[in-house]
Amino acid sequence: MRTGAIIQARMSSTRLPGKIALELPYGGGVTVLEQVIGRVRKCRLVNEVIVATTTGRDDDAVVKLAKKAGAGVFRGSKNDVLSRYYSAARENGLDTVVRITSDCPCMDPELISGVIGAYTRGKADYASNVLKSPYPDGLDIEVFSFAALERVHLGSADAKAREHVTFGIYSQPEKFRLKFLKAPRSLSEQKIRITLDTPEDYALLCAVYKALYRPGRPFGLADILALLKREPWLRTINRRVAAKKVFPGLREELAEAVKVLKLQDLGRAAAYISARIKK
User: How far is it between the farthest Cα atoms of the chain?
Assistant: First the structure.
């Protein structure tokens, strides 16, 4: 069985354009994308690492960074990410796909192994650590079979499924066998954010890398938790940043909007929407 990690990456970003080309640690000469690739390659259960980017000219820079880090490259559709994943997996002869996003420079190789283990032991079509009792934002891992990927690629014209890759799998538990690696309750309740979407996120990640980064020796989740326990003020750096999410309907999306408004101290707007959700 050939297992490959496919890292989706592109230079465009609505909140922090060019984020994957930022240096991490700051001034260290190594980019975010290179750090992600290096950490994923440390997972002993991954046979190959492929960066899946777009055919757009802006993403020529992604190709250069990926090759510099020793990863394979596939270029495909910008908006049809499902097609991009399917074609990358098919071209590289993968039986099992590990989905990683390029904005997760604290990715833990051991946690990747844990999700792959849940997938293998459960004889699953799909396994993840994000849907039930999730791990901290920035450690998102999904593992799925090429057969399941091909099935949703060939059978779904839904725009949401085309953009979000695995939605067509995990939203149909009656068709696919799903397994989940759940975080301990004490961890899932901490609401730790170590992903890269905003300047605030970058500031936190620079602080984490300054404290923990040693070339060739990737730090893990346990190291990050120990650092945050020693330096709890670090959590305040990106406390008000809201994570991007996919919601099944308008009601759920409005409920999340209320949370975001409260984070920004926009209480009257939050109360206004809340009252209408309850009607």
Answer: 56
CA atoms within 13 A on the CB side of 247: 11
Spans of the chain below 70 pLDDT: 242-249, 252, 256, 259-260, 263-264, 279
CA dihedral 188, 222, 3, 170 (to 10 degrees): 0
| Domain 3-188 CATH superfamily | Spore Coat Polysaccharide Biosynthesis Protein SpsA; Chain A (3.90.550.10)
pTM of the predicted structure, to 2 decimals: 0.87
Distances (CA, A) of 135 to 120, 140, 183, 187, 188: 20, 7, 5, 7, 6
Domain regions of the chain by residue span: 3-188, 247-279
pLDDT, tens digit, 9 for 90 and up, residues 177-199:
999 999 998 887 788 999 999 99
In which region does residue 246 sit, left (phi positive, over 0), alpha (psi from -120 to 50) or beta (all else)? beta
CB 49, CB 72: distance < 8 Å? yes
